[in-house]
Design a protein that fits this description.
alpha+beta, Alpha-Beta Plaits, two-stranded antiparallel sheet, elongated
Amino acid sequence: MTYSSVNTIWVLIGAALVFFMQAGFSLCEAGFTRAKNTGNILMKNLMDFCIGTPAFWLVGFGLMFGSGTALFGAIDPFIMGDYSHILPDGVPLWAFAIFQTVFCATSATIVSGAMAERTKFSAYCIYSLAISLVIYPVSGHWIWGGGWLSQLGFHDFAGSTAVHMVGGICAMIGAAILGPRIGKYDKNGKPRAILGHNITFAALGVFILWFCWFGFNGASTVGMDSDELMQTAGRVFFNTNLSAALACCTTLIVTWIRYKKPDVSMTYNAALAGLVGITAGCDAVNPMGAAAIGIICGIVIVFAVEFFDKVAKIDDPVGAISVHGVCGALGTVLTGVFATGVTTEKGLLYGGGLHFLGVQCLGVLSVAVYVAAIITVVFLILKHTIGLRADKEDELAGLDVSEHGLLTSYAGFAMLPDTIAQDDYKPVNVSGDVPVAEAVPVKKMPTFDSNTPKLTKVEIICKESRFETLKAAMMHIGITGMTVSHVLGCGMQKGKPEYYRGVQVEANLLPKVQVEIVVSKVPVSDVIETAKRVLYTGHIGDGKIFVYDVENVVKIRTGEEGYDALQDVE
């Protein structure tokens, strides 16, 4: 066989880009989950690739591409057999093998997001092994290895079904068997929003994935040594980008209408939904078809996320089921509608009739049934042997410390408290041996004599956005010192209702600023009236002012006490 340097380099660059998608998935999943599980998420995304690579080398590649039957390939440990029947023109075996290995790892890593924050790490390693060893290779053989679906004319250019839907189905079954995170649903089954801790991570992860998708889809031409392949690659790149962009625009509009504000996390999910949706037919549709697929996926992703969260009660922290499972299946089916006939049969809209569309639907359904059946067996075995779900105590503490002994992934940074708890949580009754009547009494100590100026502490809790205005006003009336803290809190209204991924955020602890001022010279009434004047908006959340008597003040540098300690005089 004569090798082509152009084709080989193209495939290897594509393999490197698809490998780097692991970084994108890691950041995306970590950002959409809580800080206490960040290390666990990153570890899982590392290990599913590291476990999947030898598994695919030992068994998976042979099952997928071996010249066996229409149902599965051959058992060929270490890839020792002859694969000339399947190799792309001019591409060496090992270049093709690494390209397919990184695709396999992508399918396995999809599952970690949907099952995040409550899965045992040991169980995760085992079911990732099963996906790379058997589940992905067998269905992959049907589609790309010369199996029965490929013989029928099923078209999945870069893996909307072969990679993404397989991962999405595994994620759905796993999340359903696993059950929701503690505190996700109240006693009436109403979902609560559990916010991701780092939207910056999530956004960066999505941008990395978008960038790498040009390798995922583009390099699936597995060649660039002819005018036809170059034309196809250009069309693939353009369609991939267009679908993702329009999916984002569509979701932005849909969430703006539904939630009164454009949802950030859902719009980032939409980018991935558009990318997944176009992956099957990016070579077979024109830009109009790619635009339509992107718009449809942008609409569907919103309602799919809401369906699994609110109706099916399947807790998916990152939207992996909706993005990869739903939009992977949808994109494959829509290829049977929008294909122009350039690289496949014509789709329904281009006069191709129902045959091609029927084959696409059959392929999606058959792969979904196969994957669901096998992964269900795997999950149930794990559940009844080593256990699939982490203990409640470990889940509440966070999987970083319970599974890996990692106290925090953010040493040196203060973390917001986790306010999600079980519905049946009850405070522990603390009792002692000393009866109340015999306890040490609280004594009111004399504060000042008649000649001592009164000291008063004014504590103001307000919105962060109003602090600079408050500070300037206090300085203007003669306040020269204050203590400022960032705090979390809510009043009787339990915070301002907002939406996160379509779920109302209830009883939220909102960020506030607490300003503490001790005054003696400036009249307390002036401080209060000034604060009221500059903080008032008339809306819920303007804040509170608390006034306390102060017993004494000591200036450490000089030893002055009381009124003198508050005067800034050398």
